[in-house]
Specification:
- The protein has a five-stranded antiparallel beta sheet with strand order 3-2-1-4-5, covered by helices on one side.
- It has a single domain, classed as SH3 type barrels (Roll).
- The protein has one helix and five strands.
- Helix content is 29%, strand content 38%.
- 18% of the residues are buried.
- A hairpin with a 2-residue loop joins strand 2 and strand 3.
- It is elongated, with a radius of gyration of 17 Å.
Length: 85
Amino acid sequence: MCLAIPARIVEIEGDSAVADAMGTRWKIRTTLTPEAGLGDIVLIHAGYAITKVDEEEARKTWELFEEIARIEEQEKQAGGQEGPA
């Protein structure tokens, strides 16, 4: 499965950049998106910014990731409890 993560470019120098998504930062390349600049939100896949995305699209994706994390945490906590005999 392939997954691209939306992240905001917080540092940029040439085609090297640092992008932040929900507090996690990655060193990325903007070679494929030379139009991307500081403050832009891009989709990151395999260390490359592959396209720019708008704020609303990114926010929806971040909310989905947060919901997945909440569900996983609930399942993890429920796994520690004994079920019916």
